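Need a sequence for this fold. Nothing fancy.
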């Protein structure tokens, strides 16, 4: 019985390890073949943009190493030069800033070039990123992944690559793309929440710029500040009891 249990454990462990290899290292190896890369892309960066009707536009850079997320290398960008909703201009700005940091930084996530860049989008988004790379003299393999049909766009190819939906390489790209989307959306929602809170605080008498900054640091959203008691508000840097009471009364005036 002990022998059988030991063999069962060994077989289950072997199956788990094989599946893990197929999902990560195996998928990277398959991806290198599909994209005709010189080697499996150990470091993959993905970029996704997020905005609401062109307002508070942001972009996110996420990193996968060895086929696995590396959150410590994630970075966020608040778009500075683009007015309105222009996904292509946003992508150009973000890629330019990323490569500029590569040339300036000697350590940190920006100091290392990836083995592959994944752009969330189709041909036009990819071309926007390629345009900046060419202007800055940076050579990095880039692809675009369009969500509607999961087409993989590569430079200098007229038609996109269509992989079988069961392909480990496609699953890896989808995971990378979806993580970039999640990170960008999370950042954008947090930014919009802070913008909304700032607008609300403008209406409260006695809450100037310094106190607004302190409240924004302490409370990420209007819902959070609404839950705070007067004593909790009073503990925020720079708040007096009258100011804390004014904030509390404002958020509870309809109750």
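Here you go.
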């Amino acid at each position: 019985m002990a022998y059988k249990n030991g063999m069962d454990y060994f077989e289950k462990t072997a199956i788990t390890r094989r599946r893990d290899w197929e999902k990560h290292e195996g998928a990277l190896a398959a991806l290198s073949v599909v994209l005709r890369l010189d080697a499996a892309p150990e470091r993959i960066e993905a970029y996704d943009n997020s905005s609401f009707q062109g307002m508070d536009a942001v972009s996110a850079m996420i990193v996968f190493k060895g086929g696995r997320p590396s959150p410590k290398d994630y970075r966020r960008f608040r778009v500075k030069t683009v007015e309105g909703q222009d996904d292509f201009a946003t992508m150009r700005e973000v890629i330019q800033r990323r490569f500029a940091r590569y040339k300036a930084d000697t350590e940190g996530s920006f100091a290392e070039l990836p083995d592959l860049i994944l752009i969330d989008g189709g041909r036009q988004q990819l071309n926007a990123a390629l345009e900046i790379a060419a202007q800055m003299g940076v050579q990095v393999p880039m692809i675009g992944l369009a969500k509607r049909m999961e087409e993989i766009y590569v430079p200098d190819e007229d038609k996109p690559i269509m992989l079988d939906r069961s392909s480990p390489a496609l699953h890896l790209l989808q995971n990378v793309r979806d993580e970039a989307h999640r990170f960008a959306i999370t950042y954008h929602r947090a930014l919009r929440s802070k913008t909304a809170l700032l607008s609300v605080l403008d209406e409260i008498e006695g809450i100037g710029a310094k106190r607004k900054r302190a409240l924004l640091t302490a409370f990420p959203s209007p819902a959070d500040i609404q839950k705070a008691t007067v004593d909790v508000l009073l503990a925020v840097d720079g708040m007096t009891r009258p100011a804390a009471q004014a904030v509390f009364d404002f958020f509870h005036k309809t109750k």
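For context: The beta strands are 43-52, 55-65, 68-69, 75-78, 116-120, 142-146, 151-153.
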